[in-house]
Amino acid sequence: KAGVTQTPRYLIKTRGQQVTLSCSPISGHRSVSWYQQTPGQGLQFLFEYFSETQRNKGNFPGRFSGRQFSNSRSEMNVSTLELGDSALYLCASSLVPTVYEQYFGPGTRLTVT
Amino acid sequence: DAKTTQPNSMESNEEEPVHLPCNHSTISGTDYIHWYRQLPSQGPEYVIHGLTSNVNNRMASLAIAEDRKSSTLILHRATLRDAAVYYCILTKGSGGGADGLTFGKGTHLIIQP
Predict the structure, then answer these.
(1) Across chain A, what does the average pLDDT equal?
(2) Does A90 contact B95 at a Cβ distance shorter than 8 Å?
(3) % of residues, chain A, pLDDT over 70
(4) pLDDT at residue A64 tops 80
(5) Which of A22, A52, A76, A102 is most buried, most CB within 10 Å of its CB?
(6) Residue-wise over A30-52: b if at least 16 C-beta within 10 A, else e?
(7) pLDDT, tens digit, for every residue of B42-78?
(8) Do residue A50 and residue B98 have CB atoms under 8 angstroms apart?
(9) Smallest Cβ distance to B99: which of A48, A94, A107?
(10) Is B101 left (phi over 0), alpha (psi -120 to 50) or beta?
């Protein structure tokens, strides 16, 4: 069974631009969560989607948004990029919303210049 | 929210058992204990979780103190591939979604050949 896939793997953007990251969950998994990982703050929860609905949201500004499609694939968008948005963005999937056995993708490394 | 405390780093030799400690003295009765690990350049990987009883799976064992104020992740025979950052995480209840996964700094496990 294929794991969680994230595209693109690496991305360089300029401050002020916007970016869209994509996540394809494990087949059959309907819950997708997003995390941001930086050296200073570690892994921080962004939001979780299930059945195309956002269930939970972490403490991030409104510039960070996401959505989930009917096939459970998810995208996250960051508008008006700031230098501090440079990070590894990780997507995790699970069968249903649960804290158990989240399966993480390899992440998208975003660099904002 | 209950907090976990882990050593910043630990070192062990290949093919020897490794005991990774986690203190959670303010744990509540419904808090579950989870362990994830993150190998270099990869997303986190679920290892094991438990509530009160010790747990075993193909990757590791989780030993939970009787008062539940501490737990130990046991890798029975470490390999070089086990070199990673290990996170001990508490979550409330048996479900609730990914917002329960709050990653701390974790323990950086170094395996010497």
Answers:
(1) 93
(2) no
(3) 98
(4) yes
(5) A102
(6) bbbbbbbbeeeebbbbbbbbbee
(7) 999 999 999 999 999 999 999 999 999 999 999 999 9
(8) no
(9) A48
(10) beta
Mean pLDDT, residues B25-38: 91
Looking at chain A, which residue has its C-alpha nearest residue B47?
Answer: A101
CB contact under 8 A, B95 and A50: no
pLDDT of residue B93: 65
Contact B97 A98 (CB under 8 A): yes
Closest CA to A22 of A38, A34, A36: A34
Interatomic CA distance for residues B51 and A74, integer angstroms: 31
Q: Could you say which of A102, A105, A107 has the minimum Cβ distance to residue B98?
A: A102
Mutate to test the interface with B, among A31, A43, A57, A104 (most CBs of B within 10 A): A43
Confidence of residue B33 (pLDDT cuts 50, 70, 90): very high
Q: How far apart are CA A24 and CA A97, in angstroms?
A: 16
Instruction: Please name the residues in contact with A70: beta carbons below 8 A apart, sequence gap of 6 or more.
Output: A52
- Using an 8 Å Cβ cutoff, are A87 and A38 in contact? yes
Those residues with Cβ within 8 angstroms of residue B106's Cβ, 6 or more apart along the chain or in another chain: B6, B38, B85, B86, B87, B88
